[in-house]
Design goal:
Helix content is 30%, strand content 14%. With 439 residues, it is an alpha+beta fold.
Amino acid sequence: MTDPAFDADTLRERALTTLTTARARTTLLTSCVEEPDLTAQHSPLMSPLVWDLAHIGNQEEMWLLRAVGGREAMRPEIDGLYDAFEHPRAERPSLPLLPPAEARHYASEVRGRVLDILESTAFHGTRLTEAGFAFGMIAQHEQQHDETMLITHQLRKGPQALTAPDPDPVPLFTGPSEVLVPGGPFIMGTSTEPWALDNERPAHRREVPAFYMDTTPVTNAAFQAFIADGGYDTERWWTPEGWAHIRQHSIHAPLYWHRDGKQWLRRRFGVTEVVPPDEPVLHVCWYEADAYARWAGRRLPTEAEWEKAARHDPAGNRSTRYPWGDADPAPEHANLGQRHLRPAPAGSYPKGESPLGIRQLIGDVWEWTASDFLPYPGFQAFPYKEYSEVFFGPEHKVLRGGAFAVDPVACRGTFRNWDYPIRRQIFSGFRTARSAGDA
């Protein structure tokens, strides 16, 4: 009997929905500002928005029109311009990029042809087409660049260009501060999630000793206590590399924060506001997260600990797709998809908690872990080494869980993100852990 989740009509509808959702978000992010803001580089860490726009179209053309559909290249002369590995971000403004109107037209023309191919694609026969993988990969790619463009919007100086309703207020969380995650084996990664990317595969057994994990992400109020206690001025909380980094760059608070008398303010998408005490702290690098954890007498969770907390169902002794089970994310489960432009208060989304009672493991903020980004046993690069393999090693730390800026198609209990430990412009926060034997 055919699994309805892999029925051709269902897969086609899912692919169409996710591609359409991604394009609507791309359009919003590139239509809410004038042309000078699209072509400017707002930070050397980021591309001009117009580069992301054409790159999205170029990747879609390469993988869906050429690789899946067997079509001839539409614009082969621009492949090099939009190759992320050929040109570092700092160099991209000097390239002969497509102007905004031409970039929009190109991406739109590609999409029109892709929809024709989608109608006739058989979702079997090759690894690219099996279960619609290539369409899912491209939808995830576009949403990841949408998140990147949202980061650029946050870095951009000037008046507010984006708006969204705030998350619903919730009562101050009064549950336990930490939860015991029992020791023992669990299945990490996946071999069955059809649109999972190569670094999430294959599923494999991991043994994880018992540990305690924070019930919610670390809040702004908690992080302010670290600052007030001289956290940024006390060398013993920092790794040598972290201490050297914050000294060199005069870092004394999360990115976008500044002090005004007795209160902390932050800039968020063009608006200056009081830092809300009950929100998860945002825009901290790995070094800051690690130093806070040491100050608190705790540590960052390993990647395996994080995934066990997010996926292990003790009652069924199995790994679920999400903390709440196997159902796709819904608004009551998590803060995802740029539905809001900020994290929800700590303790939100009780329907999204894990069987052990841990909340907000998915959505709100990317969570730094203690782990380097490394391949799983049996890893195989697919469909190209530059997605994951070239980043493996101790230079990158793993982040888990997704943020408010992440679309559900690019967020799973197995999804792995990674970045340099100095990065702060990303929508990153953290929670802490301790081994069960620690006092």
